[in-house]
User: What shape does this take?
Amino acid sequence: MPQVKRAVVIGAGLTGLTAAHLLSRNQVDVTVYEREFRVGGHARSESMGDVPYEPHGAHIFHTGDAPMWRLATSLVDMLPYRHRVLTELAGEMFSWPLQYDELERLDGWGTIRAELAKVGRVDATNFETWCVSQMGATLYHLFIEDYTAKQWGRPGSELASSIGPKRVELRRDGVRDLFRDPFQGWPVGGYGALCEAMACPVAGDVEIVMGETVTVADLGAVAAPGVPVIVTAALDDFFNGSHGPLQWRGVGLVARWMPKVAGFAQQAMVINRPSPDVAYTRTIESKWVLGPDTKTEGTMVMYEYPGAEAKHYPVPDVAGTSAQTQHAYEVELRDYERNPLIAAGRLARYTYINMDEAMRSGCAAAHRAWRSYP
Assistant: This one.
């Protein structure tokens, strides 16, 4: 009789459950350990009646990765939502990413136009120099400087330029959707429904143990020697801070339920609030995923405040301190001998990734685990 293949996954978020799902489809019995009493991690959405809202901030499934889109849509139906973002400046709304044809409304347009005419070589010294070299000092000051200071708790000059290309763009082509990917949507029932569908047994078993935190010190109790362990938890947590804490930036949200709003409370799902006079960075009305013509009554607006204890965003400091600490943990992971340890996902890889990338990371981790079997 062939020996049963087993694997352990730490974390029941989108990455961990993608890995568990694929291993299960290949006759592997998987045990997933999750410290919370629900699956889905930071991506999980909730609902008030039929109105969705997101306690951990906006999450949008968008991708050009056709296999990841096929995997997601094989498990849940997708609402045909394409994401639009606005940013508020002095009571006026502007598209985000910024659109060149909207900038004439700004005071100081002449200065802005002159600065844009001088844009040239990218200055990647830090995030601030990257932005200024792409759009000039005035637009950076108006739309990005104060927002960055609120979001990250430090000026843009202390952040690495690597965050620029994913977050900042000045468009001249009139495309108002935030993302250009061909496949976009929002799961019916939210990301919790997608993760729960992944957790359903296919061929092997997927057992989920909730309410239990697993660190490297616990592996002797949860994984036999040689059993691959996929780690989606932050490595400073998993290794009990052996190389010191990683820098994280969290957000906290406050929800406001408005039962008498028949349509929408704001003009797009997400509105950025760069003003330093406003404590929150953005407001989120996830009801927009239901479509602009929805008849669902009531709405929920989330106010996102930076500086919470949660581990939402890795901090790409320009000095590279965070990257050095992460590297030390990755070396410890690699050198662990009792079990193959495989880091996957946003937390364990200490990187900002999209939903499809989280799933792709789970797929790659499952393949690595499969290759570890004799």
Observations:
- The first helix runs from residue 14 to 25.
- The domain at 5-45+189-240+316-371 is CATH 3.40.50.720 (Rossmann fold).
